[in-house]
């Protein structure tokens, strides 16, 4: 992982590009970022040759509603990586007392040379480590790169779906 991050930073420097990370919370922030997050999520799925869960109108509406509900409750944090001012990756996290729960993360394939997803994941992990109140990181999915960053355990996942009020 260190090698990947070092290589990404070297490529950014060699190409004269900048990588910037922003952490946003709250409903207004989410509303502003939602189109970029949605596009990044959908495009990454398509670039892998897969249909996106956001292609289905019902799934898209559920996804949007869930993010808006979490943001309105003050639980959502959107971490965004920018290369030269363009969204290159995002991580959607939930701040749940002492847990930082990574709900999803995607990167824009156009910026793959610079590994923006890895750079952003590293920044999110460092942010969590820098806050004494945050004691546990939960990737919340078996697809997350936890084995590359840090892993000290895994648990079976049970998904319950209920409408948020």
Describe the structure in brief.
By secondary structure, the protein is of the alpha+beta class.
What does this structure look like?
By secondary structure, this protein is of the alpha+beta class. The protein has five helices and five strands. A five-stranded mixed beta sheet has the order 1-2-3-4-5, sandwiched between helices. It starts with a helix and ends in a 16-residue tail after the last helix. The model has no long low-confidence stretch (mean pLDDT 87).
Helix content: 40-55%
Structural class: alpha+beta
> Overall 3D geometry?
globular
The end-to-end span amounts to 40 Å
- Identify the strand order in the major beta sheet: 1-2-3-4-5
Order of helices and strands: HEHHEEEHEH
Beta-sheet strand percentage? 15-25%
Please summarize the sheet with the most strands.
5 strands, mixed
Oligomer: single chain
Contiguous runs where pLDDT drops below 50 for at least 5 residues? none
Beta strands, count: 5
Mean residue pLDDT: 87
Number of helices: 5
Give the tags.
about 160 residues, 5 helices, globular
List the helices and strands and how they pair.
Layout: H1 2-14, E1 19-25, H2 27-47, H3 57-72, E2 76-83, E3 86-96, E4 99-107, H4 116-130, E5 136-138, H5 146-149
Parallel strand pairs: 4-5
Antiparallel strand pairs: 1-2, 2-3, 3-4
